[in-house]
RNA sequence: GCCGAAGUGGCGGAAUGGUAGACGCGGCGGUCUCAAAAACCGUUGGGAGUUAAAUCCCGUGUCGGUUCGAAUCCGACCUUCGGCACCA
């Protein structure tokens, strides 16, 4: 007995769902064949991290993707909709430290469990193509691809200040730092100087800005564009030869070269390599203290925009070569080493930060671009708009936009600098000081330097007997058997690289591996990739906008340039589904607010949960989880179950009535059209609403009589076909129960499917609609007077404009509202309304 | 601060220039039942009006505008969410 208030199932969902899941697997219904003659459709959903349990958010995301993939399949495509696991990552390693379970076992146990859960959803994944990234057969190709990128100069090692998460005890890519906090654990990130491996994604910055070859949401394109942050400007040298250093100039970057005559100081980033050399002996103590303090700050402290701009004088000077003026050099922490050249020319009159800085330290403020109606006096704040050049020697009087060009040309002619482009995006830092990731296949030899592991020696396998201690040291670095190695070049003792790769490397090409997961001699079979890629439809959460989606695009472009691929973009279409929240918060294990689907599946079955989730609202919207409406979906499933199994022969006792048949057909064809359009656009909520309306109208048609069994059975068949992508089990069971055991309906005979496969509802084609049959022959015309509804009249759909207007004007209800008024105009919208404008 | 999206009944939402509230939940009334649950039928934005109806008015965050007609387009503002943010 169900609990009070819970809808009782009229059918045994457990029995039919397990029956069909087993039979589909046995018949290989969802096995994807490369030799299928139908046009291909690659529909991919972002693979999950194997955290251990599928929560309701996974169901929401995966159900929508599965519905759409099934829909395409029934539209006649050979659909590849694969699934796998993003199996490397910190959780597994933390479990090892905390509970002594080896990351491999922890991960594989989770995968085993999650795979079963995914199967219980009734998805069409072809498990023969599953990918598990922590398997050496997968990650060896991470290593191989790394070596190709290294050979091409796209992977390099550099000593650089990097983001460090003290809690995860590893470095992070810029993309993984959110508001100065670690993306994973919200710990404030600090800076460290370390030798690290990078991928040269910046080489592709301009191409990554081009979204014209894809059909992506504008929002996504904007996010990537903002992230890349292209800005055009000029690099200009300031003369520091008076200090007698090896470096004779100090290079700065500016987007406002028109303000060059307004430079009254120059500021170095605290980490700038010339800080020490330029600092005068008497200033050393103060500068050292300042630099030290800056380095100790976290990013959030340092990058806080409302913090006062601080700095110290170095005692050194440089010369602005345009006017020969000597200006002081300072160190200030508002200057970032990682952007531009790490040196800023201070133009306080025309940059608000410089203005605040100059005001605080009493540095001169000289206007060189005049604001409109400027009286020549001091400014209250920086003027950052365009204007006329003043105090700018021979450029005086020019509009600053022209000044910009002329001054840049002058500087280039003099050899003091050149026009250039800067990007906010940095190279992708892929080193991680952790165990559970792909070992970077490099060896450090004292004699030969950094030497790649020969391709024949791949994979570099993670040692199984590593020790997981809560010390923060990488288990690989402590593992002597792993570290000590012969140099492949000179044969002498050498040290293995102990950093592992960011897991985003794995996901940057997994969509290639799905096409040929068993290929052993290369990362993917070029033929298979050519057949399936690029991905036609990618779905997943928007949180990957500037990480995974940018990295994968970079990979494809780099592999293309290596001759491994012949297309430019990995994902042609992209759709971001929304997130299911729990009490307005993102669901996560650490918050402890994860909603498990298990008990709902137990009570209502997978079909009902899938449909309920899809019915909540538009798929892109997500929303707060509530189970308050789930009974309604269960109730509807029961109604479908009952309705599809009625014995239609009793209808034959009544005479066939053409009007009733026509109305039923109209309902059938309108529904096919609506559901098809909605599914196409991921509007599963309105597709379901259309199906619900359809079952309501089928009920009415049954009550009304006048249709015969043939009409009814045809209408029910259409219902099952349209329902199949959403509720695959019940649709299949009812398909069988309504006598559809025949072979081959709607499938081309050349496909190599056996009779079990062909008899499945999921092997049928979606029905087509007939516009003539879907058309109304009577329409309701709304009659308005001055825009307010006053009457509704039924007219034939073929009504002419004159007839419609005449009928509207003849309405009694209208008469009362136009009495004593002049009719100024009558507006007619065909098939919809007549609006009488009366004054 | 800049850029973008959103704001509609008690609730999830539908309608993207033409009947606001499709579809569903919940509520209310009824049928069945000893009773309940389930199921089924009816009803359900607010107000005025009437024995009952007809009918009328108000209503899509706020205020204005464009239009014969605005949830929808435009302007300003408020709120929420997302992105970027000392990027020179």
List keywords for this structure.
27 helices, 839 residues, four-stranded antiparallel β-sheet, 35% helix, Isoleucyl-tRNA Synthetase, domain 2
Explain this structure to me?
The radius of gyration is 34 Å and the shape is globular. Helix content is 35%, strand content 20%. It is built from 27 helices and 34 strands. Residues 744-750 have low confidence and may be disordered. α1 packs across α23 (728-737), α21 (684-704) runs antiparallel to α22 (709-723) and α22 (709-723) packs antiparallel against α23. The relative contact order is 0.11. Strands 2-1-26-27 form a four-stranded parallel beta sheet, with helices on one face. Among the domains are: 146-210 and 431-501, no CATH class; 230-423, Isoleucyl-tRNA Synthetase, domain 2, CATH 3.90.740; 629-772, Isoleucyl-tRNA Synthetase, Domain 1; 776-838, Ubiquitin-like (UB roll), CATH 3.10.20. It has 839 residues and is α+β, with helices and mostly antiparallel strands. The structure holds one RNA strand of 88 nucleotides.
């Amino acid at each position: 007995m169900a609990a009070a208030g819970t809808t009782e199932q009229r059918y045994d969902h457990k029995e039919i769902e397990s029956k069909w899941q087993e039979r589909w697997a046995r018949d290989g219904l969802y096995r994807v064949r490369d030799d299928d003659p139908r046009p291909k459709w690659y529909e991919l959903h972002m693979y999950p991290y194997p955290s251990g349990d599928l929560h309701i958010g996974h169901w929401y995301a995966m159900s929508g993707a599965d519905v759409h993939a099934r829909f395409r399949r029934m539209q006649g495509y050979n659909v590849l909709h694969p699934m796998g696991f993003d199996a490397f990552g910190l959780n597994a390693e933390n479990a090892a430290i905390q509970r002594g379970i080896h990351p491999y076992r922890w991960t594989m146990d989770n995968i085993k469990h999650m795979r079963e859960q995914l199967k219980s959803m009734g998805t069409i994944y072809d498990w023969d193509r599953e990918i598990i990234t922590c398997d050496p057969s997968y990650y060896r190709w991470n290593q191989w691809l790394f070596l190709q990128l290294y050979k091409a100069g796209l992977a390099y090692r550099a000593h650089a200040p990097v983001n460090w998460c003290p809690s995860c005890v590893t470095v992070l890519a810029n993309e993984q730092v959110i508001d100065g906090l670690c993306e994973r654990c919200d710990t404030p990130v600090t800076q460290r100087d370390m030798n690290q491996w990078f991928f040269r994604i910046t080489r592709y910055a301009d191409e990554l800005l081009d979204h014209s070859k894809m059909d992506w949401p504008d929002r996504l394109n904007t996010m990537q564009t903002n992230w890349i942050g292209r800005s055009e400007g000029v690099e200009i040298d300031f003369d520091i030869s008076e200090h007698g250093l090896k470096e004779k100039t100090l290079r700065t970057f500016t987007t406002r070269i028109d303000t060059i005559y307004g430079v009254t100081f120059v500021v170095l980033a605290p980490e700038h390599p010339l800080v020490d050399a330029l600092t005068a002996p008497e200033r050393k103590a103060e500068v050292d203290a300042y630099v030290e303090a800056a380095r100790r700050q976290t990013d959030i402290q340092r990058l806080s925009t409302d913090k006062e701009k601080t700095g110290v004088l170095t005692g050194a000077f440089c010369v602005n070569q345009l006017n020969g003026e000597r200006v002081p050099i300072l160190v200030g922490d508002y200057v970032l080493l990682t952007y531009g050249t790490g040196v800023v020319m201070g133009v306080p009159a025309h940059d608000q930060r410089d203005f605040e800085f100059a005001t605080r330290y009493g540095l001169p403020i000289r206007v060189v671009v005049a604001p409109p109606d400027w009286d020549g006096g001091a400014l209250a704040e920086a003027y950052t708009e365009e204007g006329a050049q003043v105090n700018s020697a021979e450029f005086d009087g020019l509009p600053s936009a022209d000044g910009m060009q002329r001054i840049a040309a002058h500087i280039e002619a003099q050899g003091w600098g050149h026009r250039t482009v800067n990007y906010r995006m940095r190279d992708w830092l892929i080193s991680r000081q952790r165990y559970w990731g792909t070992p970077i296949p490099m060896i450090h030899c004292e004699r030969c330097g950094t030497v790649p592991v020969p391709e024949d020696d791949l994979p570099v396998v993670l040692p199984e007997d590593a020790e997981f201690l809560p010390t923060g040291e990488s288990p690989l670095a402590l593992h002597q058997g792993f570290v000590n190695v012969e140099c492949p070049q000179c044969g002498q003792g050498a040290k293995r690289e102990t950093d592992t790769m960011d897991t985003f490397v794995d996901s940057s090409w997994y969509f290639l591996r799905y096409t040929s997961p068993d290929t052993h001699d290369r990362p993917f079979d070029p033929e298979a990739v050519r057949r399936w890629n690029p991905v036609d439809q990618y779905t997943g959460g928007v949180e990957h906008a500037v990480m995974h989606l940018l990295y994968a695009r970079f990979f494809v472009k780099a592999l293309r340039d290596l001759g491994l691929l012949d297309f430019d973009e990995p994902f042609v279409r992209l759709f971001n589904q929304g997130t299911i929240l729990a009490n307005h918060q993102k669901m996560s294990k650490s918050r402890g607010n994860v909603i498990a689907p298990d008990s709902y599946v137990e009570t209502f079955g997978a079909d009902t949960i899938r449909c309920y989730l899809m019915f909540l609202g538009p798929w892109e919207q997500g929303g707060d989880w509530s189970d308050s409406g789930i009974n309604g979906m269960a109730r509807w499933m029961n109604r479908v179950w009952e309705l599809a199994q009625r014995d239609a022969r009793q209808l034959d006792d009544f005479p066939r009535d053409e009007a009733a048949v026509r109305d039923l057909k109209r309902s059938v064809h309108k529904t096919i059209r609506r559901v098809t359009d909605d599914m196409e656009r991921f509007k599963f909520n309105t597709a379901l609403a259309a199906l619900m309306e359809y079952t309501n109208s089928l009920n009415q048609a049954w009550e009304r009589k006048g249709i015969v069994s043939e009409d009814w059975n045809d209408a029910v068949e259409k219902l099952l076909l349209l329902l199949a992508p959403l509720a695959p089990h019940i649709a299949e069971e009812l398909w069988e129960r309504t006598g559809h055991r025949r072979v081959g309906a709607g499938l081309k005979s050349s496909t190599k499917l056996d009779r079990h496969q062909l008899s499945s509802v999921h092997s049928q084609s979606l029905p087509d609609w007939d516009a003539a049959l879907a058309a109304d022959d009577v329409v309701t015309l709304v009659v308005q007077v001055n825009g307010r509804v006053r009457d509704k009249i039924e007219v034939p759909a073929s009504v002419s404009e004159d007839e419609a207007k005449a009928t509207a004007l003849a309405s009694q209800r209208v008469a009362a509202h136009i009495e004593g008024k002049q009719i100024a105009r009558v507006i007619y919208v065909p098939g919809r309304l007549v609006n009488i404008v009366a004054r």
